[in-house]
């Protein structure tokens, strides 16, 4: 089915309005409040600290562990509290998307814990979590090769769209979600998932649009970090 106009009037490759703030949690070593449209995520970083149980330790490199959670009121039909299968899988995927950017060899045997709380959800929460978490890791002063920036790409009807929202994810004319994360400096992909159907050509197009669009997110992440360390009011 032809998808002629986005419901919120955006261009097909346009991101939702975005806001990034760091240093929002006093107890955490690093933190970030990241908002993309109505999707709002808070990330807090603790560590590196000793990893328990001991058998999980890696003497050659550290571990990034993520805990993804959705507040009950983050969606309109009350999310059941506590981690289910979806939350466990997302936690693993988010940690895997962050690990390539962190210099894990600098803290063998240790773990860096990244907590992500979804305050409000309108699709793309895993991507927003990756953005929030990587900015919080940088805020914590973690040795990193780059920040990770992520966007929920999609094929909605016949159009490749950037930063899809819940309406688009549920579009009856056909919707394929393609969450994707990059280290923007090198363009290296750290997460690529696909739910739905898409041709190889369209997938390549979605990846190349995503690779360009994350540069806008990357700039906002860097701006938030620079603002904090320059002492600007955020
Ligand atoms: O959030 P993301 O797109 O990364 O993951 P998803 O599992 O594809 O979820 C898509 C969206 O469905 C979420 O962002 C929420 O808006 C919504 N959702 C919900 O309403 N209730 C849930 N229990 C889980 C997700």
Describe this structure in words.
The protein has 234 residues and is an alpha+beta fold. The chain has a single domain, classed as Ribosomal Protein S5, domain 2, CATH 3.30.230.70. Helices cover 27% and strands 29% of the residues. The protein is built from four helices and nine strands; from the N terminus they run E-E-E-E-H-E-H-E-E-H-E-E-H. The protein has helices at residues 85-98, 125-139, 166-169, 200-230, and strands at 18-22, 30-36, 39-50, 63-70, 110-120, 149-156, 159-161, 175-183, 188-192. Helix 1 (85-98) packs across helix 2 and helix 2 (125-139) packs parallel to helix 4 (200-230). The longest helix is centred in the C-terminal third of the chain and has 31 residues, at 200-230. It is globular. The mean pLDDT is 96. Bound molecules: cytidine-5'-diphosphate (CDP).
